[in-house]
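Sanity check record (used in CI):
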Amino acid sequence: MDTPIRKLLLRSKNFNPNREMLLPFLMDNALNFLEEEKNFIKQIYKDALKDSGLNDAQKELKAESYYSENYNNK
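Expected output for PD-(D/E)XK nuclease family transposase:
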């Protein structure tokens, strides 16, 4: 499974010979990494609801609520 942390590790391998550039890269892309993590967590939650009988909009609302309650500001 291609998780956000795996993607980050693969990207960071590009900075191995140029380590001083890794921290600026991480800082510049922090919001993108957080958004990828959020979408990943929400997708897993929606996948868990696949047999629930809910439509896609309801699954999205439940996933957003789950993420907000459990991951925001942590």
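Residues 35-74 form one domain. If this sentence no longer matches the regenerated tokens, the check is flagged for review.
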